[in-house]
Amino acid sequence: MKKTVLTFAILIIVVTSSIAEIINPYEKAMKAQLALLDSAQTIQEYQAVANSFERIAQKESNEWLPLYYAAYSYINIGFDKSLTLDQKDTYFNKAEELLKKAETLSANNSEITALRGYAVMAKLAADPASRGQSLSPVAMQLFGKAIQQNGKNPRALYLMAQMEYGMAQFFGSGTEKACSMAKKSVFLYENESIEGINPYWGAEMAKEMTTKCK
């Protein structure tokens, strides 16, 4: 009798797991690509992941996260030092296009707004001498909006801290405000409850930034 009950229980677990995979192939595909995104280092690896996320986005036309992660992948490509300025801009522009699509699916989304700001900040970093004056306010506005949309979004706060720190260095002023924001972002990262395939990146970068603060 015990053996029969155990066999039945195992069967239930197997069937339930199989049904879960059939019911949610989208999340399964996303998790597989997120694992590759986490390990990506080269342009080719990021491009392959971006392509996969875009294919998922085409299939799951009501989901914003595939577009978000494809955009994030393109931003990472754009930071590659081997690229020319025009090449960098091509990737940053692609990211911005995808994020505009994502916003039509999820309005007032702090994560999307923060990543839009990150794309602008990346463009600025690619040519700070000629773009600082025009793009700094745009990036700051987007990060501020993202924080307003969700004050507990660690990515929005960390990215704003990065901008504040860069501006403080440029103008030769104190970095206390930037460092305070960076430390708060680390606290938020440590207390963030990651659900499923929602955004989670940036914790290590935020911690690294706080090492610059006294």
UniProtKB/TrEMBL annotation:
Coiled coil recorded as keyword: yes
Coiled-coil ranges from the UniProt annotation: 88-115
Keywords: Coiled coil
Protein known as: Tetratricopeptide repeat protein
